[in-house]
Amino acid sequence: MKKFSLDKHKERISLLLLSSGVVLIILLATTVLVGVIVFFLINRGALQLGETDLNVWSFVFYLLLWSLVIGAALAFVTLRFPLKPVNKILNAMSRLASGDYTVRLSFKGAFSRHPAVVELTNSFNQMASELEQTEMLRSDFINNFSHEFKTPIVSITGFAKLLKRGGLSEEKKKEYLDVIEEESLRLSQMATNVLDLTKVENQTILTDAAEYDLSEQLRTCVLMLESKWSRKHIEFSLPDEEYYVTANEELLKEVWINLLDNAVKFSRDHETVEIGVRRENGRLEVAVSDRGEEIPEGAREKIFNKFYQADESHGAQGNGVGLAVVKKIVDLHGGTVGVSCADGKTAFTVSLPQNG
User: Fold this and answer.
1) Are residues 237 and 338 in the same domain?
2) Residue 272 · residue 264 · CB < 8 Å
3) 282 and 340 belong to one structural domain
4) pLDDT tens across 250-309, in order?
5) Are 302 and 214 part of one and the same domain?
6) Are residues 8 and 74 in the same domain?
7) Are strands 210-213 and 244-247 parallel, antiparallel or unpaired?
8) CATH number, residue 308
9) Each residue's pLDDT tens digit, 38-72
């Protein structure tokens, strides 16, 4: 890493020296040209130097005047070429700042092959590409979230009107009230996910880290979701051994709830969700696996992006926020999270430093 930084530093110094060299050449050219002109004028008799101070000062004045005029002209003409890339960069940055994320940098000639220029071009284009993708995801999220938010509201409103109209059996009343309760909880969960994402995105330093029993926390999270997995008759395979980790307990609880909720959501009825924990190279790995529909290979790298939904048909509940929360929390802990699919099984694996 140190060698990489040193190489980049050398490349940028070489670019600075190249720019300084251009200015130095202009100054030398101006001096030589003015000297030739003054020598020519003296030989022609247009400029004479005498022994008096007045003639010496006249010579100095003419020298300075011609240097200023010719130097300004040369600088104006010559610096247009090295400043052209700078103007191009400034124009591209202005377009990017105004919201045009399609702008890309490209240079021609020998200048484009300089390592520092290549680094600048690649970094700018990557930044513009990331901003463009984020803007697209944000736009998609607004559409997706509007759809997801509207659906439970319509259900609640419809069943509330039916209850208000009356003339229903007790069984129907209970059924409609159950739907209203379920859709209300769904709305609450969506709002909670968005608030959680906002909270962890604004957090850059991990706080309130302490050692605690991770195995017990996983069992508690499973119990918190009992109303969801019991309806699908899903069973759980939990670790027998007790594992301890040093982390923010409240934040990690959000990780397990999101992963377990997804596992239950996408599992088929009467299946088993497996929760495995193991120690690996000084780290603690937690894997949550389910046997449901596999995530498409092209979507596996994107599902941790905020607002992204692998199921664009809205066939499954969700708003593309939960896994973004998971990744941000794991990143805060210095860990990693990934997904793999094989033999009909989808596994989300979280790797955390085992500091306890």
Assistant:
1) yes
2) no
3) yes
4) 889 989 998 998 899 888 888 999 999 999 888 999 999 998 777 777 777 778 776 565
5) yes
6) yes
7) antiparallel
8) 3.30.565.10
9) 667 667 766 555 554 445 566 666 666 666 666 66
Tokens 């940098």 locate to 105
* 164: CATH: 1.10.287.130
Buried b (16+ CB within 10 A) or exposed e, 206-225: eeebeeeebbebbeebbeeb
Q: H helices then E strands: how many in the chain? A: 9, 7
- The reported pTM is 0.54
The residue behind tokens 């309130």 is 208
| Cα gap 226→275, rounded to integer Å | 15
Mean local confidence (pLDDT), 4-13:
52
Q: Residue 316: its pLDDT value, please?
A: 46
Q: Which domain holds residue 176?
A: 139-201
Instruction: Using alpha carbons, list the distances in angstroms from residue 137 to 133, 305, 320.
Output: 6, 8, 10
Minimal CA–CA distance to 306: which of 177, 200, 180, 157? Answer: 200
In this structure, are 173 and 227 located in the same domain? no
Specify which residues 345 forms β-bridges with. 342
Count, residues in the chain: 356
Residues 184 and 221 in one domain: no
Nearest alpha-carbon partner for 347 in 302, 309, 294, 270: 294
CA dihedral of 225, 222, 218, 206, whole degrees rounded to 10? 0
For CA atoms 96, 100, 102, 107, give the dihedral sign: negative
Residues 253 and 284 both lie in one domain: yes
Beta-sheet strand order (sheet of 336-342): 235-237, 272-280, 283-290, 345-353, 336-342
Which residue's structure tokens are 């969801």?
A: 228
Question: Residue 56's beta-bridge partner residues?
Answer: none
